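job 3f2a | input accepted
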Amino acid sequence: MNIKKSLLIYVVEDNKIYNRLICEYLKKQDYTNVKSFESGKECMKAVKNGEKPDIVIEDYHLQDSTGIDVLLFVKKHSASSEFIFLTANDSVEVAVNSIKYGAYDYVIKDNDVALKKVGDKIHKITKMLLLNKRNKVIQKLMIATILVLFLIVVLGILQVFFQIFGPIR
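job 3f2a | predicted structure (169 res):
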């Protein structure tokens, strides 16, 4: 399965032109499951209705809320969602707060490489998500192996017990 096609990516940007620019960039990078929102409320409504985005790319200052408001709401309903802030706000305090509240990273819309930086961040998040999936599979296999070994030991002990003491009457 192609991870680029299975990732659900939200773009939350109230500037319609920049929103479209981000979405088109992602589609050119073969991300096909991209949903666009022009307000934080629209995004939160989709999450409230049960959607769980893998990645949210959002502006910090939205007309109806802040990016932190959206982040906190989405994380409450989908803890594994990763956030990349893509914003013109170059305040260190805002960047630190974004990371403190759980954003993966903070990219400034300072030039034409901002979208490439976002693409790189998505690639890193994708690797992390794949590693997490593999770790969960390995954990399940380890638990199953331990249970089988435990069962073998118990059966071995029972066999020795019955050889020494014979069947219980």
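job 3f2a | The mean pLDDT is 91.
job 3f2a | closed
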